[in-house]
Design goal:
It is built from 2 helices and 2 strands, in the order αββα. It has about 70 residues and is mainly alpha-helical. The chain has one domain. The chain has a two-stranded antiparallel sheet with strand order 1-2. Helix 1 runs antiparallel to helix 2. The longest helix has 29 residues. It is elongated, with a radius of gyration of 15 Å. The chain starts with a helix and ends with a helix.
């Protein structure tokens, strides 16, 4: 697999991860409900918020990698 196609695949997966963890974060932070059952928290925030932040970081790094290749 070429580097550019791998970065594109990572970009798409990070978008999917942002959508899913963003959905979970929204429900837990604003609706005060857990849409998938047992929810955990870490340092006062739901765990999915940290996942959302990590997916944003992966998205940004893969986007920078694609921009740098062109």
């Amino acid at each position: 697999m070429k580097m550019e196609s791998a970065l594109k695949a990572i970009l798409v997966l990070s978008i999917a991860g942002m959508l899913f963890s963003g959905y979970l974060s929204y429900y837990e932070l604003f609706k005060k409900a857990c849409p998938i059952g047992g929810c955990s928290s870490l340092l006062g925030l739901p765990a999915c918020v940290y996942g959302f932040a990590m997916y944003i970081a992966v998205f940004a790094i893969s986007l920078l990698g694609l921009k740098g290749r062109k």
